[in-house]
Amino acid sequence: MRRDHQIILEMVRPGSKVLDLGCGDGELLFLLKEKKSCRGVGIEINEQAIYGCMEKGVSVAQGDIDSGLQDYSDQRFDYVILNDSLQEILNPEKVIQEALRVGRRVIVGIPNFCNFSARLQIVFKGQVPVTKWLPYKWYNTPNLRFLSLKDFELFCRDKNILIEQRRALTHHREIRRMTNLLAYMGIYLLKKGA
C-alpha cells in the first residue's frame, strides 16, 4: 500500500462518507471501502482512470474538479479528499473553500516542490527538477501549481483554515522536523476555522 494512502486511511473514521476529488483509478476509495467500511464517490476527468474505478467497483463521476462541487449540498460528506491533485487545479482556493463547504473535514496531499533534492537540481543542473515524486519534465507535467509545504500552510493561515493534522513523508519514512526542506509530500487534515 502506498504510504500516503496508509496515512489517509489512519485519518478517516470508519463508516464515513467520502468524496475523492481527482480519484484516479479509485485505489484509495477502494481501500477506504474495504478497510474502513466507508461509502464514497470519486470525481475524475480522465476516462482511462474512470475505467479503473469501475473495475474496482468504485462509484465515480466524470467531471472537472474546478467546477464539480456546486451541485453538492453543505456538509454532505464527512471527508473530502484532494490527494495529489491540488497542484493540477486551475483555482485551488475556490476548490478548497468548496471542499470545506461540502465536507466536514478535508484531506489534502501535496507534493513538496521545494524539497532538498529539487533545490539541488535547480542549483547544480539549472533545470526544473525531476524526482520520484515529481516524475515529469516541464513540457509534459500535469502540474499547474508549484508549491511548498510552507506555501500551503501560509495559505491555510491566511484563509482561516485550521490544520488539525500535518504528516510529512520522505521516500522511506515520516518526518516531523525540517519538513519543508526534507519532505517530498505533505498530507493535511483541515477544517474551517472559527
Shape: globular
Question: Major β-sheet, in short?
Answer: 8 strands, mixed
Radius of gyration: 16 Å
Contiguous low-pLDDT stretches (5 residues minimum) are none
- Distance N to C terminus: 35 Å
Number of DSSP E strands: 8
Question: What's the CATH topology label?
Answer: Rossmann fold
- Strand residue content: 25-35%
What do you see in this structure?
The protein has 194 residues and is of the alpha/beta class. Helices cover 33% and strands 25% of the residues. The longest helix has 11 residues. It is globular and about 50 Å long. The model has no long low-confidence stretch (mean pLDDT 91).
Please describe the structure with a list of short key phrases separated by commas or semicolons:
globular; eight-stranded mixed beta sheet; 194 residues; single chain; alpha/beta; Rossmann fold
Give a concise summary.
The chain is of the alpha/beta class and 194 residues long.
Q: What secondary-structure arrangement, pairings included, does this model have?
A:
Layout: H1 3-11, E1 17-21, H2 27-36, E2 39-44, H3 47-56, E3 60-62, E4 77-83, H4 92-102, E5 103-111, H5 116-125, H6 149-158, E6 161-169, E7 174-175, H7 179-182, E8 185-192
